[in-house]
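Second opinion, please. Pick holes in both lines of this record:
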Amino acid sequence: MSRSPLAAACLAAAALTFAGCGEGKQYSTDRPILRLTVDEYRIVPQNVVVRPGRIKIVVTNEGRLQHNLVIQYPLKHVGDKPVQVPGARVKSMQPGETAPPIKVMLAPGTYRLVCTIANHDDLGQYGRLVVKGPPL
């Protein structure tokens, strides 16, 4: 069975559209440093598990657009406004730039990783940060 070039292009576009969505694999680290990359429209790794305590976060923009990274408390109710974890914001980065690292104290719980520029979150540029286990 042969596929038309149009069908192949549609399948490729669908795969790219949903590449940043879903739970995906989980990345765990016991180190007090977390390195992330951002691009259109992903945060890699998307699902991260770290231990409670002070953590240093380093983010590199490997995309072609400007991006940032913010850690937010998860929404409790539909319609709630996102709330940023104090001090947990990586400045906006130009393509190819690595932002100055941030250091943040994280208590056990689940947080959101998100790019807050324009509608990048809606396009799939978000992730989940789970903090659990014994403190660092």
In short: Confidence is low (pLDDT under 50) at residues 6-22.
